[in-house]
Amino acid sequence: MAASIPEGPDLKEMDDTDLWQLINDNRYRISMDVKPGLLIPYLRQAQVLTEMDEDEILTCHQLNNRSMRISHMLDLLHIQGKNGAMALLESLMIHYPHLYTQVTGRKPSTEASGFS
Fold first, then answer.
1. Are 103 and 31 in contact (CB under 8 A)?
2. What SS3 state is found at 4?
3. pTM
4. What does each C-alpha distance from 92 to 18, 40, 88, 103, 107 come to in angstroms?
5. What does the alpha-carbon distance between residue 60 and residue 57 come to, in Å, rounded to a whole number?
6. Contact (CB, 8 A) for 36 and 69
7. According to the model, what pLDDT value does residue 110 have?
8. Closest by alpha carbon to 80, among 32, 38, 28, 43?
9. What whole-number percentage of the chain has pLDDT above 70?
10. For 19, phi and psi rounded to 5 degrees?
């Protein structure tokens, strides 16, 4: 089954506008499927989210549900430009490989992208 997945564009060669277009085209799917607590440790390690961002995403009372928390996290990552997009996509590749394939059109890789 994995052999039938076409290779999409090389993400490292895409500019931040195109990367964020891929993400925003799938924003609803990401917001509905992703749990922020799974991705945040990787995004913190990649230094695209701060401790304050993490606290805001996970504990803000105005963010009433998981979908709102993920949507806010995407907004914070968008501010980080290409690094934010690449870190998000790499974290999806690790924790949500099927979603990564749907968003990027690429098979998940075991190699780190070296985005930063």
1. no
2. helix
3. 0.85
4. 17, 11, 6, 9, 12
5. 6
6. yes
7. 64
8. 43
9. 86
10. -65, -45
- Burial label for 100, CB within 10 Å (0-12, 13-18, 19+), is buried
Tokens of residue 37, six digits: 């607590």
Please write the tens of the pLDDT for every residue from 23-64. Answer: 999 999 999 999 999 999 999 999 999 999 999 999 999 999
Residue 71, amino acid: S
- Cα separation, 28 vs 83, in Å, equals 21
Alpha helices in 6-65 (DSSP H): 16-25, 27-33, 36-45, 51-59
Structure tokens at 44: 């913190």
What value, to the nearest 5°, has the Cα angle with vertex 29 and ends 89 and 22? Answer: 45
DSSP 14: S
Tokens 């490292």 belong to which residue?
Answer: 12
